[in-house]
Task: structure prediction
Amino acid sequence: MDDGRRAINVNIGDLTTLGPSNTVNAGVFFNGQEDPTAKLDKCRDNIFLTDPQSDRDELISVKGKRVHGTCEWIERDAKYKSWLSGETNLLWICGGPGKGKTVLSIYLTQRLMQAHTIYYFCSSNDRKRNGASTVLRGLIWHITELCPEVADQLVELRGDVSGKRVQATLGSRETLWRIFTRIVHDPRSTVTCCVLDGLDECDEISHRWLIAKFTDLLSEPSRTGTGIASSFKLMIVSRPEVSGLARCAQIKLDPNNNELVGKDIRRFVATRVEDLATNISMSKGLRLEVEETLLERSQGTFLWVGFAMLELLKKGTALEVSEVLNALPEGLPSMYSRMLLQIHRHNRFTSLLILQCVTVSVAPLDLLELAVAIGTLESKHITQEQTIRDQIKACGAMIRIDTGTVELVHQSARDYLLRDEVDENAILEQLRVKPEEAHLQMAQACVRCIEQVENFGEPHRLRNEDKVIERYVFVARKPLDDYAIDHWADHAGRCGRLVVHLLEQSPLFGEKSSLRDKWWAEYAEYLSEPNMMAVPADIHLACYLGIVPWVQALLRDKRKPSLTSLVQRSRKLVNVCDSAGRSPLWWAICAGDVVVVQLLLQEGAQPNTHKATGNAFILACRKGHDRIVNLLLAAGTDINARGEEYGSALQAASHRGHEIVVRTLLAAGASVDTQSGFHGSALQAACSEGHESTVQLLLAAGASVNAQGGEYGNALQAACAKGHQSTVQLLLQEGAEVNAQGGLFGNALQVASYFDHEETVQLLLQTGANVNAQGGKHGNALQAASVEGHEDTVRILLAAGADVNAEGGPYMNGLQAASANNHRETVRILLAAGADVNAHSADHGNAFEAACYWRHVLVMRLLLEHGAVEQWRSNSDGQKAQEYYQRIFKGWLSDS
Result:
């Protein structure tokens, strides 16, 4: 094969003659069907981003091994023991910077390993570990690593990783959350504990969203009172600034546990001083002085002690140790100040450039990317990489190189560099990072790269929430080019008024720019929003990227016209739509940019557009931008405006499970039972995705539980299609008619059977579902299960009294449906249950003819063994099946 892969084919007889559906690709395909294990492994590969255990091992390498005796106090804490026993299911351990939180998390994950614990270590320095989607991907992968059998819950991830469905799943935190909750509720999962470290290192939107989701999950009542959902426990370890956890059980490292943490620091100091004493001859008195000084000036932070020891270990004599000891400042901020003051004056300018880039970079920079960003060049005898390494070394302990990536030593270092207060010390003020200046520097470096890119084209990367997090095929480009293509606008949007320097200098911002067109063609390929490939006009792009000064410049006439014409031009441009009917307001909402939305509304933007695809209000509700929803409502938007995919704003918000927006819309008078769109109604939209809390909100607001319409006919069918068991239970309790007819599948039992949701099938049958009800796409539930080869569901239906020979639907009966689709085991089950092997009709033929037509040789043989006779329709399908049987299959039988 040209692509270098080898396919091992196993043939039965003359398999080339028999047809491709029987080809076996070793280890992957069997009788035309993909190996289930390989399919699940592919799903797990698709969701994989980082291995939490490898991340933990890397942290141990960076921070060093835990000192014996430290962290052990936590296991004696009453609140921890209460959490461990299951009396409380959410525990928050919080502490200031440098208090040993991550080492404590590592210790606990090691102690809890036998309790089937999943864990995740967030990192502000790693784009694969600092967002809601990335956290969920890590947790889901870890669960399936411990419990491989639950990987069948990853249905949305079947297919190639570059496929649009998989891309949409990986880019949607809501979809990933549904997958996570499905797995957590799966009784086969043995996971009972989850440790989430460093949640404050995720962006604010992500950590607020995750906390809201986890608290809802852990507070929801279990309908059965059994299973993993009632015993799942979560521990969050973070700084105290994280909001939303005030009411849960808390262990505060400071100040509540200063004494216990202090004992750990004393052990840590004693061990490190002992290491120092092995290299330097020190008196007992000096050792004691070193220990006491470190303890006194550390202010209870392990990180300060680590920095201090780095300096002390560089010394070779006791006198030098004593001198450094006396010079050590008190507390972390003063330690960072000391590091900066130690930078040689000749290196300060370059060090500032490095500190600016590393502090504000949207994604970690490697050595050569950083070199390009600050303009480092190679010299005659020194490579560019060696030069940048030497320049980084001049920054001292503030910067570290981790596997080729340049990072700040700790999150607290970023906080220090970005401090707002003007420093009285001129050197420290010079080295303080001013965010707008730093982002301008990065934006200018990125734009310079884009202007020189030679091979714009198809992007080779994976996005999450419109942010590039992983490239799966690498393009041969210069350092920083890929970063620049992905992130120049992130920096440009954070420059404030300084961005005018870019607007005036780069062709990227021209009214018509071929460079911008080329950039967008690559950048837009994997945006999560559909139909984004057409190059947007400059006003639309400026609004989408959130570059406020650019938006303002476009809305105002550069020729300084009269005030009247300026207002007229602004109001005309602010509402200009693209070919899909999408206004500047729509583009700003798509990006979730509240500031730009406010600006556009002030400039006269109209929230109501005529084209359904460009309805800005429905978009805001679909994306869950609650602040923008309130702004649009205040601006007079039509709350019941119709859309195409979503029939209304309420339906869009309900489908995505945005409870805050749903509450807002209901309070503002949205019609709860409006019928239109793919989902028919808001209730059906919420049920289709299993958003139980949203379902309860809608029902409480008067939504009709049996309203007809939409793809699935009614809310019960929508919930059954995805197997949302608790939602199905809720609807039935609220009076949903279990045998209501309508929709593509006819009734709830048929749709649950088709999608193989066994528990849902059993629940419906227990509630009185008619097992032989006719109608819908597949005629009846048994045929729906048979056409997909769902063996266990077929058995359940037969045990409940399904008529094995019932007719209807696109096939004659269940046997023909299973035979036509090569489900041999299902055929065997139906025959054992009394299926008429020779049932025949003029319209559908029979099971044997169907198997012959599709060349399913093993099914043909099985049917013959059970008495199938030759009986063919006179049409072309019958003739084709007959020809295959007589010309090929009979010969194969005689040879075998």
The CA atoms of residues 181 and 440 lie 42 Å apart. Residues 47-252 form a domain with the Rossmann fold fold (CATH 3.40.50). Confidence is low (pLDDT under 50) at residues 1-33, 222-229, 462-466, 558-567. Residues 258-279 form the longest helix (22 residues).
